[in-house]
Design brief:
17% strand, 219 residues, Alpha-Beta Plaits, 4-stranded antiparallel sheet, two-stranded antiparallel sheet, 56% helix
């Protein structure tokens, strides 16, 4: 039986990695490794909760509750998710990733309990939800302004190249703030309004193609 339980744990880790890959592709706070470990840990705790105390069943006057350990996973993962939620410039980041980690734990518990179809179906729903809703509904609820932080080399023409690319993408520049450090690098804080034809992923890919750009962060 232990080999079957180990298979459940491995399957939960694989499903968690699939969810984490979608998050990593969007450069979110938690990626493949985090979701992989959460899936494995949740499945392990579920297996332990269901089967780990079978040798104690013969003890007189001993009452066992197989749901106690599993119940703690639900609240315990909440602390992990809370660490991924941050507030930057009046904008909350990490809520979707935190919810994804919490759902990954639920998926791991389902597979750990032997509910392979339920756990696998949850993976499909999570990935589809994070992917399709980002593309379709995301634009309808798009904020009036996006805040982007860029670190770039301070070479000649760096700022001109950046502004020209924004103009080419028809991105409206609301505000800009620059700061040059001792390493001849420029930190640029931008407030942008994206057109319907350009989402975050397209803008990110276009900016990474610029020669002087070294790092981009959504704020």
């Amino acid at each position: 039986m232990e080999w079957e339980w180990l298979l459940r744990i491995a399957a939960a880790g694989l499903c968690g990695a699939i969810i984490g890959y979608e998050r990593k592709s969007r450069m979110k706070e938690a990626g493949i490794k985090t979701h992989f470990i959460v899936g494995i840990g949740a499945a392990l705790m579920m297996v332990l909760s269901k089967y780990g105390f079978g040798d104690q069943s013969d003890w007189p006057n001993l009452s066992l509750d197989p749901s106690r350990i599993a119940a703690q996973v639900v609240s315990g993962v909440g602390f992990l998710g809370a660490g991924m939620i941050i507030l930057q410039k009046q904008t909350i980041k990490g809520l979707t990733t935190a919810a994804g980690v919490w759902s990954t734990a639920g998926m791991g518990m389902a597979i750990g309990a032997g509910l392979y179809i339920v756990g696998g179906g949850a993976v499909i729903l999570i990935v589809l939800g994070q992917t399709l809703l980002q593309r379709s509904i995301g634009r309808l609820g798009q904020a009036a302004a996006e805040h982007v932080g860029i670190r770039m080399e301070g070479g000649e023409g760096a700022m001109e190249e950046l502004l020209a690319k924004l103009k080419e993408l028809q991105v409206s520049l609301i505000a800009i703030q620059t700061d040059r450090d001792d390493k001849r690098e420029i930190s640029v804080d931008l407030s942008l309004k994206l057109p319907a034809s350009c989402d975050k992923e397209n803008l990110l890919a276009a900016l990474h193609e610029l020669v002087h750009v070294r790092h981009i962060e959504w704020q």
